[in-house]
Amino acid sequence: MNVTTVVLVDDHRVVTRSLKAWLESFPDLKVVGIAVSGEELLQHLAEWQPEVILQDLLMPGGIDGIETTRRILEIAPGAKVIALTASVDEARMMGVLRAGAVGYLRKDAEPETLLAAVRAVASGRTYIDPSIGKQLLIQTPPTHEELTPRETDVLRQLALGKSNKGDCHGAFGRRGDGEVPCGRCFAKLQVENRAQAIVKAIRLRIVTLDDLA
Fold this sequence. Notes:
Largest sheet: 6 strands, parallel
CATH architecture of the largest domain: 3-Layer(aba) Sandwich
CATH topology of the largest domain: Rossmann fold
CATH superfamily of the largest domain: Response regulator
Helix content: 40-55%
Distance between the termini: 24 Å
CATH class of the largest domain: Alpha Beta
Number of domains: 2
Radius of gyration: 17 Å
């Protein structure tokens, strides 16, 4: 059995200790470290070498969750960061996703949702809390340059994790055969990565929450 290593970052020790005990009740998960701030996490990152980091967006210290995420991925590009938030702020959400987080979760999410998020990002997927997705749906869809049918299809496939390298090699695609559509739709939507694209795809009703389940 493959065991996913997890680090918890939150200044509420009761929360992290309870969360550690719950996560480790599953044989495929192991908590290898707990930090109370971004600075403490970064000090121990090379030692712990986690696959998944569950991190509060608002922490004590000199750096917040967005900056911590950026620094994590500079040191450990393969780490998967899930941002935890007490309230949904789309600007903050897009900021941490731009920094490289691949998951976004409410702190009051059901335990099963948190478990699904950890397992999803560990397997290479992006995870947006369904309750946050529902909130996005009631907001006014963002304005953007109109996507072509091809670009809309590429965005949908990307959001569902089904795009291939020919459709989307990187954030803005190289000018090789079949790689430009993803770059064009990213530019039109003003996003830089798949996680941000999923948020925009939800708001634009290009994908549904059921599609992402």
